[in-house]
Amino acid sequence: MAAEREWTEYENSRGYDITSCEGEHVSLSALIDDPGVDNRYLRKKNISPYPKSVLFRVSEVCHVTEESGVWGIFGDGGFKIPHHDEYDKDYFLWWSLSVTEEDIADAEENFLEELFPDGWGHNQQPFLEKFTTSPAFQSESRYGNFRFTIPLRELLSLYATQFCYNSAPVFRVLDTKIYKTEIMYSVLVHPRHIKCYSQYPRLPINGDDDVCGYFQGNLLWRCQAPSAGHGHRLVVDREESTVHARPLKGEEYYVWDHVAIAFHMEPDWVLKVDRERLYSSVSACEVTEWNLLREPDRALSKREASEVLHDIASEYGLDEYY
């Protein structure tokens, strides 16, 4: 009999309750069966069929911040960890996956290949975009109006050059965190000479069957809950070897999952990026109605956010890039 997982419950610095399992990416099906997890949303019975195991190969990551954060990043010429309070004792710089329309189309093809190994019908229409509606896929953000988007390979190269003595950083399975309706799988990246993370297992290489893996500049993510609110039902036609999304009469709410990448950073480290490159990688985005901004920062309109970027361009002589 497998050993029971050890779950820790605590409140984070934003006041939200978290249930966490360190050193493992626990699949949705395992979470549902785990007696140590007390979350009624996980075990909802009325959820219509949807794509439950979709492999994404994502090559870009993003870091979203608010107005004070974007000014700080340009002032520092790079990224550093924010001020820590009594709750945030880990020295991590957090990035999320930036899933593109091309990534979704590629994942759809992966899904069809697994479902129909001998090939699918010639009249197959796009369907996955009807289900990828959770915050993991939205252009809006909960964290601010300013999104930095950089290829993961480029970010790893900068990190390795500045903090890893030019050796490849190490990828590890950090934890699984469960919020009310959100499941977050955290991947840890750290320099090889930092030895305090040896208790965390290595992230699988080319782990197509794992929740997360890494291969040749791509973060592999097997998404198990792509829709926070379900507006469609997945219909599989075995005779025609096709699938399609059938609209539901009403929306069904369920959990959703995503991946976050935590780069180990010491308090005095700044991950330096040329300001020209910073400016070419940043874009203005809308903030979700329900968001995680902290005062005194506030949600800006996209026009206001674009004006901030124009002011930054003027401040640092980047007008030619605006």
Account of the 3D structure:
- The protein has helices at residues 28-33, 67-76, 101-115, 152-163, 275-281, 302-315, and strands at 8-11, 17-22, 54-58, 60-65, 78-79, 92-97, 146-151, 170-178, 182-190, 212-215, 218-223, 229-237, 242-253, 256-264, 271-272, 282-284.
- It has 322 residues and is of the alpha+beta class.
- The strands form 4 sheets. Strands 1-2-8-9-14-6-4-7-16 form a 9-stranded mixed sheet. A 3-stranded antiparallel sheet has the order 3-11-10.
- The longest helix is centred in the middle third of the chain and has 15 residues, at 101-115.
- It starts with 7 loop residues before the first strand and ends in a 7-residue tail after the last helix.
- The model has no long low-confidence stretch (mean pLDDT 92).
What distinguishing features does this structure have?
alpha+beta, 16 strands, globular
The portion of residues forming beta strands comes to 25-35%
The major β-sheet equals:
9 strands, mixed
Mean pLDDT: 92
Computed Rg: 20 Å
Helix content: 10-25%
Outline type: globular
Q: What is the element string, with H for helices and E for strands? A: EEHEEHEEHEHEEEEEEEEHEH
Strand neighbour order, sheet with most strands: 1-2-8-9-14-6-4-7-16
Distance between the termini: 60 Å
- The number of distinct β-strands equals 16
Contiguous uncertain segments of 5+ residues: none
Structural class: alpha+beta
- Determine the number of helices (DSSP H or I, runs of at least 4 residues): 6
